[in-house]
């Protein structure tokens, strides 16, 4: 049994762009697409209503939103299995519940009004932080198609050991026939000096070598057939990954399991979700 891919829609253009991406992804994975609209009012009350709905906000119903979303999903994938459902409940609760039985959840930025596209909406952030399955957040700042990405490149942030996020990246790269850039950031603390008795070379060289070893360990279970490229770069992980996102079709980061020490979505995850130049996949760690 194949778990469906779920996409949340709210009638905004960003959410319908997420449908485009989700339809491509469902076709790549050969799984059904489930389109969900959660609402607390009978009529749409947003200010960023997608133009293709063709009605003033006060006249658009949940059925109208789902019909438009399903039509977009089938535009490029006529054979795709698509189901829709409207639920009178808070979007965060609905999508987190859907995530328990989904292969992936796709959401747009969900921001509305004048700051749409500049700030990540609370729905997207909550789902990315709490969902039981991988979550991909699509903003309106870039190409919203998963298939045939213009860069042919996926980026994953690598830890010290093999992780669920890295394995997810392998699978996505293989499906797309894309290159996979595994990135490991490293930093040289400013207080280190060449006068330290344990340093036989420059401090920068030692930290870089350590990063290379950690990256190799993280990629130890790389499958054959992946066009894998290893990169280490000096700087904070946030800065390095954001820079890499400008030439990527998808950026993948990991997320701690519930109960692990610290926030489940750390500073790196928060930063790339708000500012990355490509879609971001947040993958919960299951190892």
Stretches with pLDDT under 50, minimum 5 residues? 43-48, 111-119
Percent of sequence in beta strands: 15-25%
Order of adjacent strands in the largest pleated sheet: 3-2-1-4-5-10-9-6-7-8
From the N-terminal CA to the C-terminal CA, the straight-line distance is 23 Å
Shape type: elongated
H/E element string? EHEHEHEHEEHEHEHEHE
pLDDT averaged residue by residue: 84
Largest sheet: 10 strands, mixed
Rg? 20 Å
Notes on the protein architecture:
- Helix 6 links the parallel strand 7 and strand 8.
- About 5% of the residues have low confidence.
- This protein is elongated.
- It contains eight helices and ten strands.
- By secondary structure, it is an alpha/beta fold.
- A ten-stranded mixed sheet has the order 3-2-1-4-5-10-9-6-7-8, with helices on both faces.
Features:
alpha/beta, ten-stranded mixed β-sheet, 34% helix
Helix-strand layout with pairing:
Blueprint: E1 5-8, H1 13-29, E2 33-38, H2 62-76, E3 82-87, H3 91-99, E4 104-108, H4 122-130, E5 135-138, E6 153-157, H5 164-176, E7 179-186, H6 203-218, E8 228-234, H7 237-245, E9 250-255, H8 267-275, E10 280-284
Parallel strand pairs: 1-2, 1-4, 2-3, 4-5, 6-7, 6-9, 7-8, 9-10
Antiparallel strand pairs: 5-10
Helix pairs in contact: 1-2, 3-4, 7-8
Q: What's a concise summary of this model?
A:
This protein is α/β, with parallel strands linked by helices and 287 residues long.
């Amino acid at each position: 049994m194949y778990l469906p891919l779920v996409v949340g829609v709210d009638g905004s253009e960003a959410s319908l762009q997420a449908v485009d991406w989700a339809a491509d992804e469902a076709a790549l994975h050969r799984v059904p697409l489930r389109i969900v609209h959660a609402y607390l009012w009978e009529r749409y009350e947003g200010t960023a209503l997608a133009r293709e709905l063709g009605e003033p906000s006060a006249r658009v119903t949940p059925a109208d939103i789902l019909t438009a979303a399903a039509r977009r999903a089938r535009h490029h994938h006529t054979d795709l299995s698509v189901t829709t459902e409207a639920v009178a409940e808070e979007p965060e609760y609905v999508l987190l519940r859907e995530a328990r039985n989904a292969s992936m959840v796709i959401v747009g930025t969900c921001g509305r009004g004048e700051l749409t596209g500049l700030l990540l909406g609370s729905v997207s952030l909550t789902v990315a932080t709490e969902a039981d399955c991988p979550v991909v957040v699509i903003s309106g700042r870039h190409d919203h198609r998963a298939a045939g990405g213009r860069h042919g490149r996926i980026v994953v942030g690598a830890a010290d050991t093999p992780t669920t996020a890295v394995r997810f990246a392998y699978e996505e790269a293989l499906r797309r026939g894309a290159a996979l850039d595994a990135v490991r950031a490293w930093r040289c603390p400013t207080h280190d000096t060449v006068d330290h008795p344990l340093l036989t070379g420059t401090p920068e060289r030692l930290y870089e070598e350590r990063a290379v070893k950690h990256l190799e360990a993280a990629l130890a279970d790389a499958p054959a057939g992946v066009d894998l490229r290893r990169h280490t770069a000096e700087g904070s992980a946030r800065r390095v990954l954001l820079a890499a996102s400008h030439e990527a079709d998808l950026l993948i980061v990991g997320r701690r399991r519930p109960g692990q020490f610290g926030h489940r979505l750390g500073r790196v995850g928060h930063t790339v979700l708000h500012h990355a130049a490509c879609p971001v996949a947040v993958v919960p760690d299951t190892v």
